[in-house]
C-alpha cells in the first residue's frame, strides 16, 4: 500500500531539475495546487501557544557569527516579513491533527521518535540550526552550526550532515511555500569543507512550482560569502496532508 | 589555507556525473593514481588487532532481515573475496598515523568527536549499518537499518539520513578502491520511503576512475529487491593521505 501509493504519485511526472540547468523564476502564486495559502500553512505551522520545546533558540554553544546573524534576522521578523520557524523534537509535533496521505502511516510501535536533524540532545554536539522563512519571497535562510558528532574528515562536517541539513531546509520551505511533502531528488556539488563549530548560511529559493512539483535551489556559504561550501538543487512533490479523524 | 588548498585541487577538473547519464565500466586498475594498491589500503584500514570498538557488529536491535543478510555476507568473506569493514567511532581512528593533505587540519580543540553516522550510541536508535567491500570487483554492499531518531515523515527515515548513509558508503568505497577522499557531488533520486526499523540494502559500484576522480553509483532497495528506495551517483576526488611525522 505504501509503495503503490508513493510510486503512483511520483509517476505523475518525470521532470527533474539538473544541476547547472538554468533556473526560471515565474510569478509565484500564494496559493498551492490544493488551495491552501502560504499564510494559512505558516499560521498552522508556527503555533502561537505550545508547551513543545523549540530547539531553534540560541544556546551557549552557538558561535558569535551564529548569534549575531540570528539577532539580525530576528529584527527582520519585525520589519521585513521574515518568520522564524519553530523546530520541535519530531515532525509529528509539526503536523498535529494531520496525517500523511495515501495510507503512508507508521507501522512501528516505538514511541520515542526524533526528527533526524534533532537526534542529538546535548547542546552544540550535533545539529544547531534555525530556519527563517519569507512567505512572499518564497525563500529561506538556515543558520547551521555542525557539532563534533557530525564529523566526516577530522575537524570538518560530514558531507552527509550538510546534505541532510539542505534536505531538511528544502523540506520545511517546500511545505510552507506550496505543500511540498516528499523529496524527489537532491543534487549537491561540494566546494569546501565546513569546519566543525563554525557557521554555514544556507540560502534557499523556490525557483518554480510546476506539475505538482517544487523546484528549489540552495547555496551554503560562510557568513561573509567569501567561501562557498556547497550548492544544491532539490525537487519536492506536492501532496496535501489529510485532516485526522477524531476517535 | 584550507579553502585555497581544497578549491585548488577541485579546480583540476570540472567533469561531473549527471543523474541518468550512461555509465562506462572500463577495466579498473588495482592501483590508484598514487600507486597504493587496493590490497594495501584494505589491510591498513582493516586492523587485525585493535582495542577500538567496532560498531558494525550485530546487536539486539537488528531486524531478522539484517541479521540474515549479515550472516550471508560473512560467509562470503570466507569464500568469495568480500571483506567486512570495521566501523570505528571516528574517522580519526580509521586513519591513524595519517593526516589530511594540503593543510586540511582540524582547528577546534574539542576532544570528543564522532563520525556522523555513528553519532548516536544507543543500539537501534540511530544508524545501524555494516559495509562489506569487494576489492577486485570494486563494489560495496551496505546493510542499513534506520532507527526512530532518524525520522523524517512519521514512521519513515529522513531523506537526509539516507543521503548521509549513501555518502558514507561511497566514501569508504572510494577510499579503498582508489584513495577517493572528498565528495565532489552527490545526486539522489528518491523513489520510496524506508520504514523505520526495516532493512535497506545499498549496492555501490565504482563505475570508473578518471582524471583523479572516482565515479560511483548506488541503488538502495529492500532485501527482496521488489522496492527501490533511491538511486544515486557520487563523484569523489582522489587525494593521498600523508604520513604523520612522529614528534
UniProtKB/TrEMBL annotation, chains A, B:
Give any single GO term for biological process. Answer: cardiolipin acyl-chain remodeling
Q: Per UniProt, what is one GO molecular function of this protein?
A: long-chain fatty acyl-CoA hydrolase activity
Q: Name one GO cellular component term.
A: mitochondrial matrix
Which Pfam families does the entry mention? 4HBT (PF03061)
Membrane-crossing residues? none
Which ranges carry the Thioesterase domain?
Answer: 155-226
Annotated coiled-coil positions are: none
What is this protein identified as? Thioesterase superfamily member 5
Q: Which organism is it from?
A: Lynx canadensis
